[in-house]
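Example A, followed by Example B.
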Amino acid sequence: MTYKNRPLVQRLVEFKNRNLFSFHVPGHKNGTLSGLPEQLRSALAYDFTELTGLDDLHQPAGVIQVAEQKLTTLYQADKSFFLVNGSTVGNLAMVYATCRENDIVIVQRNAHKSIFNALELTGARPVFVTPRWDENTKAAGTITESQVRKALTLYPEAKAVILTSPTYYGAIAEELKEIIAICHAKGLPVLVDEAHGAHFVIGKPFPKSALTLGADVVVHSAHKTLPAMTMASFLHVKSTLVSIERVAHYLQILQSSSPSYLLMASLDDAREYVASFTVEATGAFLENRKDMINRLTLIVGLEIVESTDPLKLMIRAKGTSGFELQQVLEAEGVYPELADPYQVLFVLPLVKQAQGNRIQKIILKIERAVIALENGEKNGREEAPAPVLIEDISEPRFIARELEKLDVEWINFERAIGQVAAATVTPYPPGIPLLLAGERISERHIASLTELARMQAKFQGTIRMKEKKILVVKNDSEE
């Protein structure tokens, strides 16, 4: 079989079909020594290393260069890169390429944890811009032109602006074009974590990409919405303010020196999948989506909430939390992307053909789940009030490098208000920190932690949920 317009995939197939003898890494020797199940083991026959003819991700001059050039052309960037360490490495590289120690950086507060990790590693000083609550998605939304303008007035020495659009729930920064123009007028690069927007390149009905609107660096999680393997991502540079060479330099440092050819092949394939998304395919996707929404709407007790991004749907059940709804759905074999106190989030498949029969089977399972929920014991929770996001623009009390020199202690949640968090606390998913290391702890933080603990939400970070204790800076309370 010929894999048209997928040069790396085609090269791997040709190489594998030569049945060559492996006296090179990896040690599974084309899968022959592997004890994995057959379905997994068969893929290892394509798990090569930088052999003659297969090119080198860190110095591409052959088939990988061709594959990345096709990606660059599709997204109309100056240069696009394959990422094998997820969007996390893209976020790290773009921050390293633009920010240095003690640089002031304007950061959207509901960014992914990898952005804050990048700021910690570089020693840059973040200024947080807190978005308004988005009542539609029941989550923190995006920031506005006026907020960015205010932040740049208060911090004229800022060196970069880091944004997240879309949010995990598909909300789009409506004034993104204007925000980028304001920043560029001051000579500031705009870095956008667009992890959930790799499919925006299709065009309508999907939103415009930040790359199209003028952002300097954009990172895409190809594995989130395109048919790529987990961790397979893209990074695009289109800028006169950010050096492609510096981005490439940090990618060479931060990415694995033994990049997976399986991941890169899946990126080559995902790029071709979206590049060949025709008007007819878009029509089929929209018909599937409409069919599913119409059927879901008929299920008594469910509320279906649409997002700006047609690939995202929120499902709510009256009188219960998203965590409980997730539990009964998973019991029926329906696994949503995430749950929160209000809802579950579905990431729809970007299919090109009609899926009527499959949709009908899914709906029957969801109906059974809702019936089980109605018949079971619910927590009787009243809908949690929307958090009050008061601080429009703020700085942390300490940055990470300063925290390392301070004494810390564990204290109960109720005693933590007014203290300074000594570690970041992140509900996962979605991986957006609720509380950042160095931030002053507010009543809102503790109320959210208490509610999430009661619902048995999952966390990453330094926190003792069972004991309801949090790590704080010793002797630095707000009087």
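Example B, a separate protein, is given below in the same form.
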Amino acid sequence: MEKRELICIGCPMGCPLTVELEGGEVISVTGHTCKRGDVYARKEVTNPTRIVTSTVKVLEGKADMVSVKTREDIPKGKIFDCVRALKDVTVKAPVHIGDVIVPDIAGTGVDMVATKQVL
């Protein structure tokens, strides 16, 4: 049986979690004080995902850059592909919060969207 130790990021408590696995399947999760801890631990050891944040260049705007993020979490293994896909992206002002900057970033099925307005 395999054991993994995690710190939960599901809420501000930061509970120390212990996940027991057998054959890649979660057998038990202990240490959580709320339901979010159990959900987080199971997902983290079987299919870890992350929200990716970055910036892209803006032309003809009051700011040179706009902050962006993935609309949803993506597989952890796709983070660097996502960042590489943003390297040469430039958008023209105006940019509004929620505008799709790159659809289906790095083939994840998730859009990269603006998180700030640049006029």
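On Example B: The chain has a mean pLDDT of 96.
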